[in-house]
Specification:
It contains 1 helix and no strands. It is mostly helical. 0% of the residues are buried.
Length: 32
């Protein structure tokens, strides 16, 4: 497996986790 595609996969997973956590973070800020 080429290193480039592995980095791309890690980046996509990072983006997914960020998108999943964003609504939670915004709700947290709204409650403060």
């Amino acid at each position: 497996m080429p290193k480039h595609s592995s980095i791309k996969k890690d980046f996509q997973e990072f983006l997914q986790e960020t998108l999943i956590s964003l609504p939670h973070l915004s709700r947290f800020h709204l409650h403060q």
